[in-house]
Amino acid sequence: MFCRFCGKPIKDKAVVCAGCGRPVEGPGSSSDPSQRWSFATLAILMAVTVFLPPIGLVFGFLGLRNPHRKTQAAVLLTVSVFMTLLMAAIILGL
Ligand SMILES: [Zn+2]
User: Fold this and answer.
1) Distance from Cα 9 to the centre of ligand 1, integer Å
2) Per-domain residue ranges of the chain
3) DSSP labels for the chain?
């Protein structure tokens, strides 16, 4: 096959073009099922990370008013704050 950047002939199993040094993408690399699965996992993880902390914060604060659930509420609140920081880190690209 040929490099799609510089057009030089390259070996089928080559990872990098010898002519220009750019990465060689195989014919079926864009429809790789494992890549799609990891994207779906990432999307679910993002949704959970974005939507769970506010819910946890609300239930944590509500639980703090109930003396019988103060411990659970404190744990929930701590986890939610941690998740919020994690979410902020992911969004800011840290
Ligand atoms: Zn090239």
Assistant:
1) 8
2) 1-31, 33-91
3) -B-TTT--B--TT-SB-TTT-PBPPPTTSTT-HHHHHHHHHHHHHHHHHHHHHHHHHHHHHHHHTSGGGHHHHHHHHHHHHHHHHHHHHHHTT-
C-alpha 85 chain-centroid distance: 15
**Ramachandran angles phi, psi of 21, nearest 5°:** 85, 5
How many angstroms does the Cα of residue 24 sit away from the middle of ligand 1? 8
Ligand 1 center to 35 CA (angstroms): 24
Expressed in angstroms and rounded, the spacing between residue 73 Cα and the centre of ligand 1 is 58
Q: Which parts of the chain sit beneath pLDDT 50?
A: 28-29
Q: Looking at residue 33, what is its pLDDT? A: 58
Q: Contact at 8 Å (CB) between 27 and 35? A: no
